[in-house]
Amino acid sequence: MTLEPETELRPWAEQEAIDDGSYRDQIAYLYERSPFYRAKLASAGFATAAAAGRLGDIARLPLTEKAELKATATPGNPVGAHLCADRAEIVRIYSTSGTTGTPSYIPLTASDLDNWVTGSARSYATSGVAAGERIVSTYNAGPFVAGAALAAFDRIGLCHIPVGTGNSERLMLAIDLLRPEAAVLTPSYAAYLVEWAAERGFDLRSSSVRRVLVAGEPGGGEPTFRAQLEEGWGARVTEAMGIGDIGPSLWGECEHQDGMHFGARGFVHAELIDPATGDAIPIGEGATGELVLTHLRHRAAPLLRFRTRDHVLVRTDPCRCGRTGPRVRCIGRTDDMLIVRGVNVFPSAVREVVSAFVPRVSGNVLVRPAKPGAKQDPPLPVAVELARHSDVDPSLAAEIGTRIRAALVVQARVELVPWGSLQRSEYKSKLVEHDNTSTESR
Ligand SMILES: [Zn+2]
């Protein structure tokens, strides 16, 4: 079942034709109203909107980095020089969790907000949740764009039960008493709750929750990890994904669990690049690269060829649900990617390999690179946590190391650590920890 069949089932070539028109209007708008893009495009040799060309020419234009936008923020214009709309047109201002100093501000006009909610509603509804059902959410949306994603639940017609982050007792009580059909949370928290429930004798498998929607970090679509979540929850697990600067929930997986469909189609254009060179990679079946996104109908602070830092695998083979267009699975954040003797390694892929050793291990892992930066020498140190009552089996570390080498073509030094020694998260997991002495130099 699709929320907007006319849009979601539209032949992709038709969508591209519509998007080309939207794109050219968007580019004209940027030349007219965005000091940031006027200057950036002119300095790249594109003095006018006509010179910038059609959607099919987009790969000729420069990429946008988050830091560039931030660098143009001033006390007089704290959003940055990419702000296009007048003060009176802005109806909402979200912010991102800046690690230092002032956050990045993300303004929206009324139509921007409406498009965000529409795209998010399509993405979440793709999971199969439907009007009249109840969904419990665990995000402390606060100042963050996730707040707009939560408005999508109203749009779908769900009864939304927000319980916030960091109170598992309250969450389980809500599940027990209010009997929601769905829960939305990070994959790390979903995994943590399986452990939490087992320790307290709470029968999660028999709860009312039939769908678990995971979002907020990569890995929820990795088959072995997902299978464990499904086993623990007795529910179907599907992924959703967004990126704060572009839209809160842009992609969502259907029940066939074969990559996330593009819920924000028509509002956003997606491309792939090689993160090392910035070169475009054609979107085709099996392609991988960093996702680059462009607003097509945005007004407040539209972005052009924005680098998301999300490394994705693309599927373009038709999906049995009938939705058209490319699908993606997020493999990891480009920032978390390690390069071990020329081979790219994502920490969620390491966790996926180790997950196959449950129940001998807990499933918690921590990659501990010996050097700062992405480039590492083999063997890559990986801490693997043992299961709660497992006996130390001297051959296990070697067995896991062999499997990592076979699956990821990387030599790892596996260290088995006792149950409970790696940190659990009620939000997002940290799967990589660089040596303390080198962290500051990163
Ligand atoms: Zn599908």
What does this protein structure show overall?
This protein is α/β, with parallel strands linked by helices and 442 residues long. The chain has 13 helices and 20 strands. Strand 7 and strand 8 form a beta hairpin. The structure holds zinc ion. The site of zinc ion has 6 residues, from loops.
Distinctive features:
binds zinc ion; 442 residues; 13 helices; disordered C terminus; single chain; 30% helix; 24% strand; 20 strands; alpha/beta; 3-stranded mixed β-sheet; 12-stranded mixed β-sheet
β-sheet strand percentage: 15-25%
Average per-residue pLDDT, rounded, comes to 93
Low-confidence stretches: 437-442
- Counted by DSSP, the helix tally is 13
Q: How would you describe the oligomerization state of the chains in this entry?
A: single chain
How is the largest sheet built, in terms of strand order?
A: 4-3-5-6-7-8-9-14-13-12-10-11
Radius of gyration: 22 Å
Overall shape: it is: globular
Strand tally is: 20
Q: Name the structural class.
A: alpha/beta
**Ligand set:** zinc ion
Separation, N- and C-terminal Cα atoms: 47 Å
Described by strand count, sense and barrel closure, the largest sheet is:
12 strands, mixed
Binned, the helix content reads 25-40%
TL;DR of this structure?
By secondary structure, the protein is an alpha/beta fold. The chain has helices at residues 5-8, 12-33, 35-43, 49-52, 66-71, 110-125, 146-156, 168-178, 187-200, 223-233, 347-355, 396-408, 436-439, and strands at 90-95, 105-109, 134-137, 159-162, 182-185, 211-214, 236-243, 247-253, 260-262, 268-273, 280-281, 288-295, 306-315, 327-333, 338-340, 343-345, 361-367, 375-376, 380-386, 412-417.
